[in-house]
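Hi support team,

I've been running sequence recovery on a batch of backbones for a student project. Most finish fine, but this one hangs at about 90% for roughly twenty minutes before it completes. I'm not sure whether the input is malformed or the queue is just slow. I've pasted the structure tokens below so you can try to reproduce it. Let me know if you need the job ID as well.

Thanks,
M.K.
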């Protein structure tokens, strides 16, 4: 090896070795680097769900006929509703919804069976707790599906009894869901969650490195050495980069075996793009650390600049297309937006780089710009 290059390698290795020793000897840093990402993935993975199953339902059956009981059985036989109680009057239904014991109430009026037998349109009331608009909307959609199925059964039975032909609906919609056939929210929440957690943890880890050197008075010693800015940046980032890749591997394994989220795409491509994303996120934390020179301020700033934008503006939880136009423009500056899109493409669609080229290119641009900014800031400090 050329002597000059050997000296560069030795300087980078010395900085990286020093940083790794600090991580290993400091339980807080080690916990933040490995334990906290896994803990966050478990907590958020189980807590964040958009699936609404077993909606507690209170039933007031005023008709009490085989037809009304069959409608109730259609509700309770689906996976969407579960019986909380049978009510004897309207006030009991209101009380169940008001107290939160039930999220929905089914009221079947008297004369329900007679109206069906006469071929009349028979109203059925569904009361829904609208304090959670998302759950209320889904519950009403589920109820509509159950009632339509029940109505179709009635039409078929009436046609069989009279020997006639069942009335056909002009349009027969047959939906086919791609990439997430069971419509389980965890299948797209977990990949996005990995991106958000990696962004936050990576920036937090490196946001303390330079600030710690200033607070301990060891930065002056580094400045007095012949080390260059890019060598110091590389040495500082390298240990956390390796730890970040370990976190990604653990997160992928947890997604596969703990949450049963299918990984349909290339594992090699996933790790290659994760490496690019980690480089940018770690460098961002380093820039924050260089600018602030305070561990407390650096950690707070890193949390504000990474967690909120990544959680709210990356498309992880909320569709970017539904946001106001000015906010949509802001999301282009959020690196997690591109990594979330890449992970969802690899996890759910199984697509390759040919389809994901734009997002991958923008992610690389982000990483290169942030790393160059970190080197520039360090060069000024060392100069």
């Amino acid at each position: 090896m050329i002597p000059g290059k050997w000296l560069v390698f030795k300087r980078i290795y010395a900085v990286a070795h020093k940083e790794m020793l600090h991580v290993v000897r400091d339980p807080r840093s080690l916990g933040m680097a490995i334990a906290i990402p896994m803990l966050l993935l478990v907590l958020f993975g189980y807590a964040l769900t958009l699936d609404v199953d077993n909606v507690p339902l209170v039933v007031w059956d005023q008709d009490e006929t085989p037809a009304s009981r069959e409608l109730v059985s259609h509700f309770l036989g689906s996976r969407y509703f579960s019986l909380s109680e049978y009510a004897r009057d309207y006030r009991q239904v209101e009380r169940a919804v008001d107290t939160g014991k039930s999220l929905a109430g089914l009221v079947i009026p008297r004369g329900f069976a007679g109206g069906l037998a006469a071929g009349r349109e028979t109203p059925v009331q569904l009361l829904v707790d609208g304090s959670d608009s998302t759950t209320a909307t889904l519950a009403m959609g589920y109820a509509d599906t159950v009632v339509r199925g029940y109505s179709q059964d009635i039409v078929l039975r009436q046609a069989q009894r009279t020997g006639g032909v069942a009335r056909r609906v002009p349009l027969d919609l047959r939906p086919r869901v791609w990439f997430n056939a069971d419509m389980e929210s965890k299948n797209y929440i977990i990949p996005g969650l990995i991106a958000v957690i990696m962004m936050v943890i990576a920036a937090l880890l490196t946001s303390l490195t330079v600030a710690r050197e200033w607070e301990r008075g060891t930065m002056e010693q580094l400045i007095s050495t012949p080390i260059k800015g890019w060598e110091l940046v590389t040495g500082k980032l390298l240990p956390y980069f390796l730890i970040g890749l370990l976190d990604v591997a653990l997160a992928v394994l947890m997604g596969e075996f703990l949450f049963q989220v299918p990984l349909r795409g290339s594992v090699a491509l996933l790790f290659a793009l994760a490496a690019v994303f980690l480089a940018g996120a770690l460098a961002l934390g380093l820039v924050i650390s260089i600018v602030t020179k305070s561990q407390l301020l650096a950690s707070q700033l890193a949390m504000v600049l990474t967690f909120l934008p990544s959680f709210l503006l990356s498309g992880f939880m909320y569709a970017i297309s539904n946001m106001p136009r000015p906010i949509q423009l802001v999301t282009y500056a959020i690196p997690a937006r591109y990594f979330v899109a890449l992970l969802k493409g690899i996890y759910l669609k199984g697509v390759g780089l040919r389809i994901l080229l734009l997002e991958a290119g923008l992610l690389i641009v982000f990483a290169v710009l942030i790393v160059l900014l970190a080197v520039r800031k360090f060069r000024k400090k060392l100069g």
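--
Follow-up from support: It reproduced on our side and the slowdown came from queue contention, not your input. The chain has two domains: 3-48+184-382, 55-162. No action needed from you.
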